[in-house]
Design goal:
The chain is an alpha/beta fold and 548 residues long. Helix content is 60%, strand content 12%.
């Protein structure tokens, strides 16, 4: 530009403008180098402001050219100047349009200067050039806005794609980890199930040929132990399945924590004495809000672990108020947990400091159940431990918001057996199961109707002319019928929601959701007499309370 205009413009103006442009370019280069060498990304907004002001300065240098390099009466040089200015507008569009404020700050000074300088000639040609400069400004700014929006959208899509790819990768890793965990889970469960089953087969074989009464009694006790181990594993696995399926709904009530602590003490007192451990409950008058049954299961698992892994010393269980909350602590002087294992202990079948699992030290499912139950109840569980000195497991839960009802406390002191004399209908297509259920229920003082189908049950009930107080049905029956169908039909015939529950060996999530949707309890085989009695008592007591 200086070379073309050398003979038309004063040399001082040309060289001064060229020097200013060179200094501007040098400053831009220094800024670029400094930006690339920055050590922090937190000052990007500051750098953006610097760049925008630098571009305004560059635009003003070009604006000065409109006045310094304007050659009167030589249209060809004037058009050359316009061409150079349009080149600056176009090149700025390519490099700066991704940031609209920067582009506007650059082109506004010299396009405004061009419109003013050419308009000063006050003739149609120069008025046309001034108008063209103004129209060019709005056209190019609008085009720059389109480019910026397209650029921002492309960045958004790229970032969204990157985020989805990251999420997909995480999900794939989670699926792979879940598959591996499931395989380990099933392998460990299969091992723990096969062990007592193997022992059970051996004990039964010995019992067939044993003549000595004392040895037969010992074998019966060993068989009972093996069956108990199998039931414990099944119960733990079903607890995990129910929690993972999301069908376990807590029932929150207000109750005194001391009664709960006393039950825990009663449960483990004998075991602690056998190991010569001190088990102490710190008395408390505080009332808490939680699901009493699920919270008791949490504490039973925590105390069970404490007793199992404590070889000398003792266990202390107590409460501390923490503002509107209560923290229940289980302290022990056991083997402790290394810091790098304190999260792993909440995984299934995990045992501390063992290269191989020891089934005599428990199934390794207790803390997995604790974590899931605490998550369900929204009771955070924490652990603090020092290897060789002991551990403290803590559960944080809210205090009760209202005082205890005197009427409720009075009612609670009245103990009535809701089972005795009730008519219970049992439907199962397995005659051995029917025979066993009949004997157990009769032992509890119940009247029973046992049948292999609903038609047989209805015929027997019709002859007696009585309405059942409770229905117990297997899930899978003959001819493709299900326990859901049977319960629904019997309730429809008697015109009332007769209390009922199902027993099944199907542990799928779908079956659990189906029972939950139908408001039916679902017990999973094998069902211990204690669990059966608790369920029957619960349903019949609820019915008696509703009737009262």
């Amino acid at each position: 530009m200086v070379w073309v205009l050398w003979d038309q413009v004063a040399h001082g103006a040309l060289l001064g403008w060229l020097a200013a442009f060179g200094a501007y370019s040098l400053v831009r280069a220094i800024m670029t180098r400094a930006y690339r060498r920055r050590t922090s990304d937190t000052d990007d907004s500051t750098w953006m402001t610097r760049v925008q002001w630098a571009l305004v300065v560059g635009g003003c240098i070009w604006a000065s050219a409109c006045f310094l390099f304007y050659v009167p009466d030589r249209v060809e040089y004037q058009l050359f100047l316009v061409t150079m200015l349009l080149g600056a507008v176009a090149s700025g569009l390519v490099t700066l349009a991704v940031n609209l404020p920067a582009y506007v700050g650059f082109v506004t000074p010299f396009l405004a200067a061009a419109a003013i300088r050419f308009g000063m000639e006050n003739d149609p040609l120069h008025w046309g050039i001034a108008l063209a400069a103004t129209v060019t400004f709005f056209l190019f700014v609008n085009f720059a806005r389109f480019i910026q929006n397209s650029f921002v959208e492309s960045l958004r899509l790229r970032m969204q794609l990157a985020e989805r790819n990251r999420q997909l990768a995480e999900r794939n890793r989670a699926i792979e980890a879940a598959n591996l965990a499931k395989s380990r889970f099933l392998a460990a469960a299969s091992h723990d199930l096969r062990q007592p089953l193997h022992a059970l087969n051996l004990f039964v074989a010995q019992l067939h040929d044993e003549r000595d009464a004392g040895e037969r009694s010992r074998l019966v006790a060993r068989i009972d132990t093996a069956v108990g181990a199998m039931n414990a594993l099944f119960d733990a696995l079903l607890d995990i399945s129910k929690l993972d399926a999301g069908v376990l709904a807590p029932t929150l009530t207000d109750f005194p924590v001391h009664h709960l602590l006393q039950r825990v003490e009663t449960t483990f007192a004998a075991t602690a004495r056998e190991k010569e451990l001190r088990l102490r409950i710190v008395p408390s008058t505080v009332r808490i809000r939680s699901d009493a049954i699920l919270l008791e299961r949490i504490l039973l698992n925590l105390v069970s672990n404490a007793v199992r892994y404590t070889m000398q010393g003792g266990i202390v269980i107590g409460c501390r108020r923490r503002g509107p909350n209560v923290r229940i602590d289980v302290w022990d002087t056991g083997i402790g947990i290394p810091e790098d294992q304190q999260r792993n202990i909440f995984g299934e079948f995990y045992q501390i400091s063992r290269m191989e699992r020891d089934r005599h030290a428990g199934l390794g499912l207790g803390l997995a159940i604790v974590e899931r139950l605490c998550h369900l109840l929204d009771h955070p569980v924490t652990v603090a431990s020092t290897p060789g000195k002991g551990s403290r497991f803590s559960v944080l839960l809210p205090q009760a918001t209202a005082p205890a009802s005197t009427a409720l406390l009075a009612d609670a002191t009245v103990t009535v057996d809701p089972v005795r004399g009730k008519l219970v209908v049992v439907i199962d297509d397995d005659t051995l199961v029917l025979d066993g259920m009949r004997g157990v229920l009769h032992g509890w003082g119940c009247q029973t109707v046992t049948a292999e189908s609903e038609e047989t049950a209805l015929a027997t009930l019709a002859r007696g002319g009585a309405r059942p107080d409770l229905i117990i049905s297997d899930y899978r029956l003959a001819d493709g019928r299900t326990g859901f169908d049977v319960v629904e039909r019997l309730r429809r015939i008697y015109g009332t929601a007769v209390p009922a529950f199902l027993i099944t060996g199907d542990t799928t999530t779908e079956r659990m959701h189906q029972a939950h949707a139908g408001d039916l309890l679902l017990l999973h085989k094998p069902v211990t007499p204690m669990t059966l009695r608790a369920t029957v008592t619960q349903l019949l007591r609820q019915t008696s309370s509703a009737a009262g």
